[in-house]
Amino acid sequence: MLRSLRVTRRRAGVDADVRAVLAGAASAAAAEVDDVLPVPPDATAGAFFDVDNTMIRGASIYFFGKGMAGRGLITTRDLLRFGWQQLAFRVRGSEDPDAVAEARDKALGLVAGKSVEEIVAYGEEIYDELMDRRIWSGTRALAQQHLDAGQRVWLVTATPVELARIIAARLGLTGALGTVSEVEDGLYTGRLVGEPLHGPAKGQAVRALAEREGLDLSRCTAYSDSVNDIPMLSAVGHAVAVNPDNALRAQARAQGWDVRDFRTGRKAAKVGVPAAAGAGAVAGGIVAGLALHRRRGDGPGRLQPASSALH
User: Fold this and answer.
1) Sheet (strand 175-179) strand order
2) Residue 84: φ, ψ to 5°
3) I need a labelling partner for 282 at 20 to 30 A (CA). Which of 26, 122, 160, 234 fits?
4) Mean pLDDT over residues 205-230, rounded?
């Protein structure tokens, strides 16, 4: 019986690894790139930013839920559940895997059968109403430094990729990696491709995108607030803990990673865009065949930078 339990656990671990690889590869395949850089690009270097509590105060999926509730598309009870998760998130400053899973399942249920075009239109309105003023100016400045140096900048988030693209476009960034939902004939099926882009899946997505875009990960930088993102932070040559939870702060101290905390009101230190040393592994061969379970439906078009993105 003990041997059977061990085999079951090993299989579960393998399945989780496979789902993480699939989710990462699907996210990289779905990533759209728009050339918004003000100077000729440094083609092999780039930056990757987590979203929730790193680029934005709080959880983006909560704000999306709040906006949907305001349009009568979810119930008050649903919104209260989102609100409780948001409060707990802000108090702890870290992610609860159960809350992440619940938010995922709720989001999938909300969009099943709806058109991608419709959800994107809602997402654009909701970003402008609820999210724009909650962007951390210090983190935004860090992203701008990479852009000014000619480096491409991506968001990497468990948020649905359609919403992640909107945030990236509004901020004038290169693009976004996010959770990919299955789409048929332009409608959401209510199923994911792989799993949410969370934890190990983020590291897989960064590696897959680097392979596709010709990035040297040893010259790349990643930013996050959460210890859950160590797979992404460890994939690049230079890692930065932004508004870190306690576990990530300890890890940053142990690894010698930079720390930037914009929650305290201290003036953000100026940071040069690094070209840090270190080997970055890349995963190949998966992306091309995965573009994508969007069998007959096309996602939203290429990112168009907003004219006010750099205010």
Assistant:
1) 175-179, 152-160, 46-49, 221-224, 238-242, 258-260
2) -65, -40
3) 160
4) 96
pLDDT digits (tens, 9 = 90+) for 227-282: 999 999 999 999 999 999 999 999 999 999 999 999 965 443 434 444 332 222 22
| 153 close to 176: Cβ distance less than 8 angstroms | no
Q: DSSP 3-state assignment of 292?
A: coil
- Sequence-distant (6+) residues with CB within 8 A of 70 are none
CATH 3.40.50.1000 is the classification of domain 30-57+135-290: yes
How far is 207 from 296, CA to CA, in rounded Å? 27
Concerning whether 50 is annotated as a catalytic residue, the answer is yes
Six-digit token string for 299: 């996602």
Instruction: Say if CB 244 and CB 257 are below 8 A apart.
Output: no
Q: Which is nearest to 36 in space by CA: 210, 168, 221, 178?
A: 168
With H, G, I as helix, E, B as strand and everything else as coil, classify residue 157.
strand
pLDDT at 274: 41
| pLDDT one-digit tens code per residue, 56-89 | 998 898 888 888 888 887 776 766 665 555 555 5
Q: What is the pLDDT of residue 165?
A: 95
DSSP annotation of 136? -
15 is catalytic: no
**pLDDT attached to residue 249:** 97
Indicate which residue of 15, 17, 52, 216 is catalytic. Answer: 52
162: helix, coil or strand? helix
Terminal alpha carbon distance of the chain: 62
Asked whether residue 289 carries a pLDDT value surpassing 70, the answer given is no
Cβ count near 178 (within 10 Å): 28
The single-letter code of the amino acid at 95 is E
- Collect contacts of 92-95 with beta carbons under 8 A, ≥24 apart: 92/245, 93/53, 93/225, 93/243, 93/244, 93/245, 93/246, 94/225, 94/226, 94/227, 94/228, 94/245, 94/246, 94/247, 95/52, 95/198, 95/226, 95/228
Write down the catalytic residue from 34, 42, 50, 298: 50
